[in-house]
Write a structure and sequence with these properties.
Elements (H helix, E strand, L loop, with lengths): L14 H9 L4 H18 L8 E5 L4 E5 L6 H8 L20 H9 L3 E6 L4 E6 L9
Antiparallel strand pairs: 1-2, 3-4
Amino acid sequence: MDAIIEAIIEAYPRKKLFIDILTKDVDAEACILDLIDNSVDSYIMKDIQGRRSIYLSLSKEKFEIRDTCGGIELNYLKKHVFMFGAESLKREKPTLGFYGIGLKRSIFKLGNRINMTTDDGINRSVIDLVERPIFNVA
């Protein structure tokens, strides 16, 4: 009888798989438009009065979007922005975004290094997304 050999086999999904699935059906133009939609949604949800601006800069090496539309509140940023799918969409005002994946789809499709700065008037937050596995397997 042959000896039984035990082995630990890594069979967990890689982050690249989820990113590829999430971004497969969207092109760069749609991503940029979705990021603009997010700026407009922020402006609407915060009931900001007065004129606001959205600035775009695009080159072969870098895409940048800046706006004066109110930023993302720190607690919401920490608990919801990079979670996949919206937990609850109870909104008092109509917005352009709906499913809670537009920002993530857009930034993952447009680049492999993401630096995001947001200022909601109270807190200025800087996020630098780096490549890490989804699961930490020892």
